[in-house]
Write a structure and sequence with these properties.
about 180 residues, Uracil-DNA Glycosylase, subunit E, 5 helices
Length: about 180
C-alpha cells in the first residue's frame, strides 16, 4: 500500500495533521478519501472552505493556505494498527516538518493525534495554552472519522473556531 503524499508549503494558514491515511486513502492517493470520513463536509460547513471539496482535490487546498500530513505515513484500517515505534518515529518527523514549514496553525485532527505528538496525557479542544513548538499555534479538533460519537454540529462548531481565527489572521484591520 502506498503512502499518501504530504501537501506542504511554507507559511500555510493551517496544516491539518491526521493519525495516518486510511486504506482507501492509500489506494487512491488522497487524504481523507474514505467515504465515511466527514472531513471535507466539516471543512465546508465550518467555513474553512468556500465549497465542498472532494478528497481528489486535496492538493488544491494549498491555494487556500491549507496543507496535509499525518503523524504516521503508513495506511492502516484504523489507528489501533499503528505501532509504538511508528508513533515514536512519526513524532520526530512531524516535529521536523513543523519546524521547517512553520504553518501559522497546526490543526491536529483528533485528540489522540495531539497526545501522541505532545506526549501529554490529555488535551482540550481548540488552541493549546502550552504548545510543543512556540512558533506554531497548536489547535486540537475532533477526528472527522465517521466512527466519532460526537454530534456533527458540535464537531463543526469546534472547526468554526479555527475558521474564525484564520479569517482574523488574514484581516488587515486586526493586525
Amino acid at each position: 500500500m502506498n503512502e499518501v503524499s504530504d501537501h506542504l508549503d511554507y507559511g500555510l494558514s493551517a496544516l491539518f495533521i491526521g493519525f495516518n491515511p486510511s486504506l482507501r486513502s492509500g489506494e487512491v492517493g488522497h487524504h481523507y478519501a474514505n467515504p465515511r470520513n466527514n472531513f471535507w463536509r466539516i471543512l465546508h460547513q465550518s467555513g474553512l472552505t468556500p465549497r465542498l471539496y472532494d478528497a481528489s482535490e486535496d492538493g488544491e487546498l494549498l491555494k487556500l493556505g491549507y496543507g496535509f500530513t499525518n503523524i504516521v505515513a503508513r495506511p492502516t484500517r484504523g489507528a489501533e494498527d499503528i505501532t509504538r515505534a511508528e508513533y515514536d518515529e512519526g513524532r520526530v518527523v512531524l516535529k521536523d516538518k513543523l519546524e521547517k514549514y512553520q504553518p501559522h496553525i497546526a490543526c491536529f485532527v483528533g485528540k489522540g493525534v495531539y497526545t501522541e505528538f505532545s506526549r501529554r496525557p490529555r488535551a482540550g479542544w481548540g488552541f493549546q495554552p502550552e504548545p510543543v513548538l512556540q512558533e506554531v499555534r497548536e489547535f486540537v479538533a475532533p477526528s472527522s472519522s465517521g466512527l466519532v460519537r460526537m454530534k456533527m454540529d458540535d464537531i463543526v462548531s469546534i472547526y468554526r473556531q479555527l475558521s474564525c481565527s484564520i479569517r482574523e489572521d488574514k484581516d488587515p484591520r486586526t493586525g
